[in-house]
Design a protein that fits this description.
9-stranded mixed beta sheet, 2 domains, elongated, alpha/beta, 15 strands, Rossmann fold, binds magnesium ion, 41% helix, 392 residues, 20% strand, binds adenosine-5'-triphosphate, VC0802-like, 14 helices, 6-stranded mixed beta sheet
Length: 392
């Protein structure tokens, strides 16, 4: 029935030059999302609107599902288009549409006509009125409500005539690519994939870094992170995942530093390395899945100690979320099932029985001095031997 989709996007704050960039990025992201859907689609900007035209057989559900994952889309309107063959024919088409799209036939409605082509022989008020009358005649249980209609029946007169009344909610946010790039510290847990999703939703392109510690962490744990990056990429677009071998650094910290400070010192090295890669690859910030108080390494004191080594903004979108709120989002974006697979994470191997919960930055810095002899070389080797996987 539907041969095209009108894409609605929020327009607040995107005027002038930004609007053009916003629309182009949105068109690009829509094309990207539809690549994996069977069927031929054409995505175009027309008179300040974005349309997806379907040029072949296609699967409606699959198409809508793909569009629902594109950030920047506020609403998806499945549209029927008909040829302009005079008003009487249009009235028949509109009645047939109403019957199919709103089969209960007991709703209130309002016709909202728009003449994008000004040579149409009736003006929009006349079209509203005359089509309204035809619908009332066809369906005795339907009523007009101009203030708060259950069905807003849009009729747009263009080269063809477009009819639509359904708005399927979109993902919201901003198109990926309109707000620079950031580096996500992606572990195999529940939180960091959600954090990446949330920042991508604001239009930020995402790269990721994962620290693994073979043989203490397995190939399967690494594969799990790759799988998570792929799941996030359904929304964010392709993710360059940098995989850093962290084993020697961890062992060296283990050898040289007090064990109750291991987690914090390790996290400081993760941030340093992530920032280094971020700078080299054009990211403007770091993203973590941290949330205040969730674990010992996320008390305010621990966050301060970790943050102290970074010069870039560290974006922590989950900072004030309860675990359940984070789980709810991970269920919604389909990362939860993968996140809870029971493969060890590099941090669980070396955790102390009683980690410091209120680290003092000066004491931590003093402990890190024990690493002076070899740490730079180890970091350099870790960077040199990184593996990059494009996840999409
Ligand atoms: P998550 O559920 O995201 O794993 P978590 O609750 O397990 O988080 P921590 O282990 O303290 O919390 O990690 C805090 C954050 O540090 C993570 O959200 C992630 O951004 C980053 N991080 C932790 N471990 C790694 C790792 N091995 N590789 C990359 N980033 C990591
Ligand atoms: Mg974790």
């Amino acid at each position: 029935m539907f041969k095209s989709f009108l894409i609605k996007y929020g327009e607040i704050g995107i005027k002038g030059k930004n609007k053009y960039l916003f629309e182009d990025a949105l068109v690009k992201q829509i094309k990207h999302a539809l690549r994996k859907v069977d069927g031929e689609f054409e995505v175009s900007k027309q008179q300040g609107r974005i349309y997806v035209e379907v040029l072949s057989e296609y699967d409606y559900e699959e198409t809508v599902d793909a569009l629902k994952k594109v950030f920047g889309i506020v609403g998806i309107c499945p549209v029927v288009h008909v040829e302009d063959e005079g008003f009487e024919q249009l009235a028949k088409d509109v009645v047939a549409y109403f019957k199919k799209a709103h089969p209960t036939l007991d709703q209130t409605f309002k016709v909202n006509a728009r003449r994008a082509r000004k040579n149409y022989p009736m003006d929009s008020m006349q079209i509203n009125y005359s089509l309204g009358e035809k619908i009332l005649q066809a369906f005795p249980n339907v009523k007009v409500d101009v203030h708060n209609p259950q069905v807003l029946l849009n009729v747009e007169i263009r080269e063809k005539i477009y009819i639509y009344s359904t708005v399927i909610p979109g993902a919201g946010g901003m198109p990926v690519g309109t707000n620079g790039k950031a580096m996500l510290l992606l572990s195999g847990g529940i939180d960091s994939p959600v954090a990446g999703y949330m920042v991508a939703r604001r239009g930020v392109k995402i790269d990721a870094v994962y620290f693994h510690a073979p043989p203490y962490t397995s190939e399967r744990a690494k594969q799990k992170v790759v799988d998570l990056a792929k799941l996030v990429s359904v929304y964010s677009g392709p993710i360059h995942l940098h995989i850093i071998n962290f084993t020697d650094i961890q062992l060296y910290i283990y050898e040289k530093c007090p064990h109750d400070e291991l987690t914090i010192i390790m996290r400081r090295y993760m941030m340093r390395i992530a920032e280094h890669i971020a700078k080299e690859t054009g990211s403007l910030g770091l993203i973590t899945g941290e949330s205040i108080g969730q674990v010992a390494s996320q008390t305010m004191q621990s966050l301060a100690a970790t943050n102290e080594v970074c010069t870039m903004p560290v974006i922590r979108p989950l900072i004030s979320f309860d675990k359940q709120d984070i789980v709810d989002i991970s269920l919604k974006i389909n990362t939860y099932e993968t996140s809870i697979l029971p493969f060890e994470d590099c941090c669980t191997i070396f955790v102390a029985k009683h980690p410091v919960t209120k680290p003092n930055v000066n004491i931590i810095k003093r402990s890190e001095r024990n690493l002076e002899e070899k740490i730079d070389e180890l970091v350099e080797t870790a960077l040199k031997t990184e593996e990059v996987i494009i996840c999409e």
